[in-house]
């Protein structure tokens, strides 16, 4: 269960259990939820008012109550946490964008590629999502990261 951090104390609400981020499928996020989450990843921390202002700058005027509802739902789903600063909730992402994206890709792998990363990458090249140069750069990065991991970490060990 996720918890809120409020004024330096961890607060668990038994009436409102939160999902761990890994329990929620990122592909089920709505367009507004994704936009708000993107803002938090870009800025690191924001209040509800700042989120509303940023959305307004994107020509997306919303009521304060709507923004607060979206933030609360993202927190319930495990994507955000908050701290209390001078009676104001300050929200931050519970995990980096890359980790959420990784879970979304895992879901796509399972649905369409029978879990095969190779099938996904070949499909991305065939569909011109990735060109061969990008694929080559990716292969080089993977090879470099494996040399830095060492044999134990590469096999999934600790």
List the keywords.
alpha+beta; 2 domains; elongated; disordered N terminus; Arc Repressor Mutant, subunit A; disordered C terminus; 158 residues; two-stranded antiparallel ribbon
Topology:
Elements (H helix, E strand, L loop, with lengths): L3 E3 L2 E3 L19 H13 L2 E2 H10 L6 H13 L3 E6 L2 E6 L3 H16 L4 H10 L5 H23 L4
Antiparallel strand pairs: 1-2, 3-5, 4-5
Largest sheet: 3 strands, antiparallel
Give the SSE string: EEHEHHEEHHH
The CATH superfamily of the largest domain is identified as Winged helix-like DNA-binding domain superfamily/Winged helix DNA-binding domain
Overall outline: elongated
What is the beta-strand fraction?
5-15%
Walk across the major sheet and give the strand order: 3-5-4
CATH topology of the largest domain: Arc Repressor Mutant, subunit A
Structural class: alpha+beta
Number of strands: 5
CATH architectural arrangement of the largest domain: Orthogonal Bundle
Q: What is the first-to-last residue Cα distance?
A: 24 Å
Q: Residue share in helices?
A: 40-55%
- What's the mean pLDDT score? 83
Q: Any low-confidence stretches, pLDDT <50, length ≥5?
A: 1-17, 154-158
What is the count of DSSP helices, taking H or I runs of 4+ residues?
A: 6
What radius of gyration results from the CA coordinates?
Answer: 19 Å
> What's the level 1 CATH class of the largest domain?
Mainly Alpha
Question: How would you characterize this protein structure?
Answer:
The protein is α+β, with helices and mostly antiparallel strands. The protein folds into 2 domains: 4-93, Winged helix-like DNA-binding domain superfamily/Winged helix DNA-binding domain (Arc Repressor Mutant, subunit A, Orthogonal Bundle); 115-158, no CATH class. It has 6 helices and 5 strands, in the order ββαβααββααα. The chain has helices at 31-43, 48-57, 64-76, 97-112, 117-126, 132-154, and strands at residues 4-6, 9-11, 46-47, 80-85, 88-93. Helix 2 packs across helix 3 (64-76). Mean pLDDT is 83; it is low at 1-17 and 154-158.
């Amino acid at each position: 269960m996720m918890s809120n951090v409020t004024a330096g104390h961890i607060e668990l609400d038994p009436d409102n259990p939160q999902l761990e981020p890994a329990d929620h499928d990122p592909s089920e996020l709505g367009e507004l939820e994704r936009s708000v989450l993107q803002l938090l990843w870009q800025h690191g921390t924001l209040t509800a008012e700042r989120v509303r202002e940023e959305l307004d700058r994107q020509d997306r005027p919303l009521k304060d109550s709507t923004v607060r509802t979206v933030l609360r739902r993202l927190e319930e789903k495990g994507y955000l946490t908050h701290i209390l600063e001078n009676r104001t909730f300050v929200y931050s992402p519970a995990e980096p964008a890359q980790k959420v994206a990784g879970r979304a890709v895992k879901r796509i792998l399972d649905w369409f590629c029978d879990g095969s990363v190779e099938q996904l990458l070949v499909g991305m090249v065939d569909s011109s999502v990735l060109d061969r140069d990008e694929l080559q750069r990716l292969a080089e990065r993977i090879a470099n990261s494996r040399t830095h991991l060492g044999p134990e970490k590469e096999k999934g060990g600790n």
